[in-house]
Design brief:
By secondary structure, the chain is of the alpha/beta class. The chain contains 17 helices and 16 strands. It has an eight-stranded mixed β-sheet with strand order 1-2-16-15-3-4-5-6, covered by helices on one side. Strands 8-9-11-12-14-13 form a six-stranded mixed β-sheet. The chain starts with 11 loop residues before the first strand and ends in a 5-residue tail after the last helix.
Amino acid sequence: MTRSSFRPITSIGLVAAVLNLLGCEKPPQTSLSSTPTPASSSTPSATDGAKAPTPKFITEWSANPPAGILMVSGEQYGYPDPCGCTDGQLGGLGRRYHLLEMLQEKGWPVAKIDLGNLIHYRSDTSRGGVTQDKIKFDIILEALSAMKYDAVALGPEDLRPRVMETLATLLNNQPPKYPVFLAANIIPQAGLESTLGSIKITKAGPITIGITAVIDPADFDQLQAQDADAKDLKVKPPDEVIPALLEELKKQAKIRVLMVQGPYEEAKRLAEKFPGFDIVVGTSEFEEPDERPEMVNDDKTLLVRNVGKKGKYVSLIGFFPGSTPMIQYRRQPLDELHFHQAEPMRQLIDVDYQERMKREKIVENFTRMSYAQAPDAKFVGAKECQACHPKTYEKWTTTKHARAFEALENPKRNRVFDAECISCHTTGFGLKTGWVSAEATPFLKGNQCENCHGPASKHVADPDNIDFRKPMHMSKAMADATGFCTKCHDQDNDHNYNFESRYAQIFHKGLDVYTDPKVHLKAKDRVNGGGQ
């Protein structure tokens, strides 16, 4: 399941800066601030049924409403929704939709752009695998379409794992239904020219906004080294294409926006070299960057560098013609205190997405490897362990590990067909003879003994064979040193995780004694009574 982590951020005060926009006689000012993340998980949330508190920036802007707003999101990295494994998680397309509903209720017109990198496929770390990531890319595209996004900057992650497949997807999802993907310095091969755009002109109320985007050639070089299809795309230096684009934007828009897919230093360099842009949006190295936006070009260009990753925040730029400050910036965390999952996104993520994964059999068809420490051993399930380890088994039944699968069976939010969730809520998933489905492997529901100790068939068959027992050894020191538990209890799923306190909850050394002779018999003899 998709996951989104929580970490308090530093609150940023208001900073006055001059920004010469909209042809005003007096240089307008820009207010820069960030809304702090709610730190208390005990505060009633927007999903509790009670009326949620209004986000601070809406209260602040209501006295003198903006003429229009530019909403900037980006670096979704394949996190359409918080997984829900713990409280306090940020992000989610449903909460973003709810925010847009709030702005619509206020009557504030909003233009919407995204910095790209909608997914983040890595063959060695992707929990769901390449097929689920492809489905997820389609789902996120549908979400942006439903939210009426104006433009998305093409990111290098969007082109993985196969460039041609991404371009084919974009070819079949053209504007105006879907947002235009901008990559002004990438030239697709013949026949695919319409997949990528150079500029987009849109409006937020009376404010005309011109948008373009470029990708850092260095990032694209890495992609070309991995994918032969990427070599068919021509990439120009941003400095070569921007001058003509900027001149065209000056003719058509009062506000000019450049999105840069590349290091922050590259975004700043381009902002300083081409001062005709009023807003430049760059990527951040961090998921939750604390720094405020920067003003460059004698305070004439707003450099937005804190969109963050995994969709946990959105940046909001309000336009207030005739007021001081004229431009106001706010970064809004998408938290459970202020926002709930809006119904259109609930239907898309909780129903349509899950149905498609079920239809495609993402879990059943997942690539499975041999267990390296014992390639020939098979998973047998915790009930097989109970015969010789009854007290250990009883202890396990009292833990959340034992009920992990049940957490996925919520009828309102069923995730049993989602490989990302199944990977931590079942036993042996991704390994041969491990979890396949509730029908095929019901004895592997939940997070059982063999997830930590490995498949136990050989040990069960011959319990005193030291060669079969060695691969199953997992001590506290080993688990801690290797970060074994954080494969599932990571910052996305469990930001409150502490190894010492959690290990104490599952500690089971010495619970059982093995004086009963039956414990030392082979399984077939034990079942037959051991000859006694």
